[in-house]
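Allow me, if you will, to draw on your knowledge of protein folds for a short while. I have a record of one protein: its chain in single-letter code and its fold written as discrete structure tokens. I remain grateful for any guidance, and I place the record below:
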Amino acid sequence: MAGVVLTITSGKGGVGKTTTSANLGTALAMAGQRVVVVDADLGLRNLDIIMGLESRIVYNVVDVIEERCPLHQALVKDKRVDELYLLPASQTRDKTAITPDQMMSVCQELQQIADYVLIDSPAGIESGFRNAVAPATEVLIVTTPEVSALRDADKVIYLLERDVGIAPRLVINRYNPRLVRRRDMLSSQDILDILSIDLIGIVPDDDSIVISTNKGRPVALDREIYVSQAYHNIAQRILGYNVPLMRFQEIGWRERLRRAFGL
């Protein structure tokens, strides 16, 4: 049975989370998996723009649920990567147009044709969150190293463990080692100490992500770009491979000398 992976944002990182969904879907497909990325953010559709597929949408997930078209007709194939598809959200309907049972049914059908179903969750913890989490077998929480985002992430982790019984894994987004060295940003270890969940990947803050998002071309498509490797590493960990985390220079040269001499 195919895995259903849900990405959830915390704090003000909604677009960053959607960018993560697009790039993880791309990286998994480039690794030879058949992937369907589902935009569960009804009324605020953005995933199609980030994937560069907005001009090819005819039907959406609500059309499938209300039986205006079969599921295969609503899937939008990415022409740049074999076996990568998008199931878009509706721009004209809100989150009440779908129930958790209906989302379960759609994802169960997708599991018959895909290796991975990747759901891009809407922001918040209301009905849209409940719809998106219902079919999930694995959850990734995407957060930035900001105190307010971490507070939100902690709340989502609590709800997932209490109500769903899923232990989520963490993606740290927009990580800036320079700010960490200046002690103007929480380090990855600080974040793990606060949230107490497993870390699956760190995505560094990089202008390439903004540029690729505006162009509708996921940065994961370009393996030669440094930040692209972060998404491919996360994809490999989802597939079960033991891939080391990317290393960042989080301490300055003075501190490295102090540690080298045991001071």
